[in-house]
Amino acid sequence: MRKYEIMYILRADLEEAQRKEVMEKLAKIITDNGGKVEETSEAMGLRELAYPIKEQSKGYYVVLKVSMDNKAINEFNRLVRINPSVLRHLIVVEHK
Description:
Blueprint: E1 2-11, H1 16-32, E2 36-53, E3 56-68, H2 70-81, E4 86-93
Antiparallel strand pairs: 1-3, 1-4, 2-3
């Protein structure tokens, strides 16, 4: 399994309980498909967006460090694209 870093932006208008639920569901997608979430960083938190995305001017940034294979990546991409709570996401390979 390769190591990846995933960053996604959640809608700012979600309440904290809803945000935690979405974050848990997204992490569960990875673990259900054989991946492992090694670290979750919420340090960036709520920030102003550079430009409006889906009529939102603010977003809640979350960064995950994960180990997963192609099956987990494909399933995560598929499900995050149809999730209305996620404004944007990006998956990059972690090089060390």
